[in-house]
Amino acid sequence: MKKKHLLPICLLVSLCMACSKKEGAKTPVVPPPAIAKDEYINPVFTPILADPSVIKAPGTNAFYAYGTEDDWGDGHGTHLIAVVKSTNLTSWNYLNDAFVTKPNWKANGFIWAPDVNYIDGKYYMYYAYSIWADPNPGIGLAIADKPEGPFSDQGKMFLSSEIGVANAIDPFYINDGNKKYLFFGSYSSAANNGTWGVELSADGKSVPDFTKKINVAAGDFEGVMIHKRGIYYYFFGSKNNCCDGAASVYQVRVGRSINLMGPYLDKDGHDLKTRGNGTLLIERNTRYAGPGHNARLMQDDAGTDWFLYHAIDRGNPLVSSGANRRALMLDKLTWNNDWPEIKGGTPSISAQKAPVFNDH
């Protein structure tokens, strides 16, 4: 009986295959994962928005994010601090670059790690000016009337040689007790390494006394962000390699202090001024490498804190220019016994509940 039906079946299969070829059948397109209206999935902006700074424009429902100078491989060359906009933290649109031309106070360098703040009715951008392994990088300031710019460069704040700190990049501004401060610093094994803080002038445009800087963390940290919550100041800093594609092992570690200038201690009571310390907050997983260099925490209308940072898709780590595809990421941050936590301690991969904004 089986042999009797073999020929008709073979003919039927052949006819079906012929019809498919004749009609030019295509491989079915796999639809993207279904995401509910109140959900999102990482990344929230591609291809690149490295070392992000995020601000909510006063009096509006709009968030603006800014990223390190990079060539996205889109044929437009390097973006001189890309500016992107969102009203919900999950959907971002590119607007323009913050700078029309590169600042000229340094002969050679890239504009890295912008930190944008609303100060005295204007938008102040503190930024690093550096090349890889730069012996004398520095930090500059640009100011704009609008969050999207254009930003007008005000020149340098200081060079590493002037402030007396090795690898003085990655600025972070904070206003505390009606005084303005700038934190900065990055990887170095020099004697004057580490993350430091210094008081700024009343207008935030200069450092009155370079000698009054204070060391708050060792030289195995970079990308500092300090967040005040309750009685504590929380130090968020990135460690390890940011930019080795799928092999990147960047991560964020934290400490806290009851004083802005420290000492910052991790959960085990170890001072961040000693190398190797810091409580782990987020690290790589099977999907994303190098999560780190986070922005300020953003809070939604439900009072939830959100953590924005960059990470690299291990399956698609580079853009056509060869730059690391450090995309903008978003994850919920919770507090446990006055310590910050991210679910699983790694970037989320599946769909997550989105931030809540009542006016949307």
Automatic annotation (TrEMBL):
Pfam families in alphabetical order: Glyco_hydro_43
Signal peptide positions on this chain: 1-25
Q: Which domain of life does the UniProt lineage start with?
A: Bacteria
Give the record's pathway. Glycan metabolism; L-arabinan degradation
Which terms are listed as keywords in the entry?
Answer: Glycosidase, Hydrolase, Signal
Q: Which family does it belong to?
A: Belongs to the glycosyl hydrolase 43 family.
- PANTHER family the record matches: ARABINAN ENDO-1,5-ALPHA-L-ARABINOSIDASE, ARABINAN ENDO-1,5-ALPHA-L-ARABINOSIDASE A-RELATED
Q: How is this protein named in the record? A: Family 43 glycosylhydrolase
